[in-house]
């Protein structure tokens, strides 16, 4: 799904019950990083094969950190472990990495 469309859907579902519409300028101001750039940052940090990628609404603690849209990746490590990686779509900041084998899959810092 297109990140801008995903954000529009998220904002539309969060609109007040009074039927107020989301201002178009709010949607236009939101500029997520390109999906392929974020996928490259995951590959730069962890060894493995990307199995899935999707856009998600932020959970409350991610929203508290300023995330408005989250890119979620599922990575299969060389050891056969699955990592779930959540990244802020606008800043590219890693929000969370969960799963076994994180340290083993982590590439050395250059």
What does this 3D model show about the protein?
The protein has five helices and four strands. The chain has 110 residues and is α+β, with helices and mostly antiparallel strands. A four-stranded antiparallel sheet has the order 1-2-3-4, with helices on one face. It is elongated and about 50 Å long.
Short description:
The chain is an alpha+beta fold and 110 residues long. The protein has helices at 3-13, 24-29, 35-45, 60-64, 102-105, and strands at residues 49-56, 70-76, 82-88, 94-98.
| Helicity range | 25-40%
What share of residues are in beta strands? 15-25%
Could you say which overall geometry the principal axes of the C-alpha atoms support?
elongated
Number of strands: 4
The biggest beta sheet is recorded as: 4 strands, antiparallel
Note poorly predicted spans: none
Major sheet strand order = 1-2-3-4
Radius of gyration: 16 Å
- In whole angstroms, how far apart are the ends? 33 Å
Q: Given the structure, what is the number of helices?
A: 5
Provide the residue-averaged pLDDT: 83
Element string (H = helix, E = strand): HHHEHEEEH
Structural class: alpha+beta
């Amino acid at each position: 799904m297109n990140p801008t469309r995903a954000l529009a859907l998220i904002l539309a579902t969060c609109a007040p019950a009074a039927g107020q519409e989301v201002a178009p300028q709010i949607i236009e101001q939101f500029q997520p990083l390109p999906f392929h750039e974020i996928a490259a940052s995951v590959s730069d940090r962890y060894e493995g094969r990307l199995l899935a990628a999707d856009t998600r609404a932020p959970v409350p603690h991610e929203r508290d950190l300023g995330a408005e849209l989250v890119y979620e990746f599922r990575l299969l490590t060389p050891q056969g472990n699955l990592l779930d990686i959540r990244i802020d779509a606008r800043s590219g900041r890693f929000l969370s990495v969960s799963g076994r084998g994180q340290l083993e899959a982590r590439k050395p810092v250059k």
